[in-house]
């Protein structure tokens, strides 16, 4: 397997906070972790995720997740993109398949009431592209549990699953993504009015 | 009504005890009653929001924009409460009422997207009190960045009067009841 050392090798220099991250974690491949969830826990610790405030925590969370994707060679994927036909909402990560299936992932330190937006966006995504799926990755364990209960009870029925980023659920989510045949589908992806979204990011040999 | 809703109604009654008090225009009603009530609302955002909703309801009622639905859940759209919903011959018109917008315009825009996916000819207006935020958001609507929103309107301006006049002239009705199976050849035991 290719040794992934730096996210910037994969053109991820546009990712917010990535240069600070690479100062703190110069070589992702040097981190000992047998599972993606162990890797994300260690990257979060090395980045000082618990001591950061505001948006920085969100940037670190996304970097942790993308690092795990890169190490598992899961891709290609798009970052901070929407899906055509579902205007006004963007997901942190968008994966696309040859048959037009979209897997959209939102990564949040904490969601609070915004789970309703995520549920509605997931519903709209499936209305536009019925084979699609939407997942949430969360840092806050209590919220992950609560949203899991809402999914089971049907209050957040459009969300296919949620995973706490340091838990085995996260490993399961990556296993799902790894089992998919993923390809770049620019025709499905909306990079936003200011082209803030980017990709496809291909995490093979840099 | 919930707790803050009851408090908002009490504030409204305190500053507007005479229900028949006349106002020249809907925007004048909003502007005048908001100024009278604002100091009683304090910094409680929930209470301020509920009070603003009551003012919009009052304006709709006084200018004969009826029937309207308050905190309406629409069939086929999951987990979404629209602040106000009206039914015209073309379909639903919803009003999303926010004292200030910040990131909440995205929520309203997403709710508008969902509405339009079910009702292609629906309209969705965001009403706010913050003119600068409304101007910025309206610019995004005009640029096409918030495609499902019809307009973002400051409720204390003449734009609100135009909207109310137009809605008052619409043929508003109670929302229809639609059978879940429109046509079938049924097999019964």
Walkthrough of the structure:
The complex is a heterodimer of chains A (about 210) and B (about 190). Chain A has two domains: about 60 residues; about 120 residues. Chain A is about 35% helix and about 20% strand. In chain A, a hairpin with a 5-residue loop joins strand 2 and strand 3. In chain A, helix 2 packs antiparallel against helix 3. The longest helix of chain A has 17 residues. The radius of gyration of chain A is 16 Å and the shape is globular. With about 190 residues, chain B is α/β, with parallel strands linked by helices. Chain B has a single domain, classed as 3-Layer(aba) Sandwich (Restriction Endonuclease), CATH 3.40.91. Chain B has a five-stranded mixed beta sheet, sandwiched between helices. In chain B, helix 1 crosses helix 2, helix 1 crosses helix 3 and helix 2 runs antiparallel to helix 3. The longest helix of chain B has 18 residues. Chain B is globular, with a radius of gyration of 18 Å. Chain B starts with a helix and ends in a 20-residue tail after the last helix. Chains A and B meet through strand 2 and helix 4 of A and helix 4 of B.
What is the topology?
The complex is a heterodimer of chains A (206) and B (189).
Chain A: H1 18-24, H2 36-46, H3 55-71, E1 77-83, E2 86-96, E3 102-108, H4 115-128, E4 133-138, H5 141-153, E5 161-164, H6 168-179, E6 189-190, E7 198-201
Parallel strand pairs in A: 3-4, 4-5
Antiparallel strand pairs in A: 1-2, 1-6, 1-7, 2-3
Helix pairs in contact in A: 2-3
Chain B: H1 3-15, H2 26-41, H3 45-62, E1 69-73, E2 81-88, E3 91-98, H4 104-118, E4 123-128, H5 131-143, E5 151-154, H6 158-169
Parallel strand pairs in B: 3-4, 4-5
Antiparallel strand pairs in B: 1-2, 2-3
Helix pairs in contact in B: 1-2, 1-3, 2-3
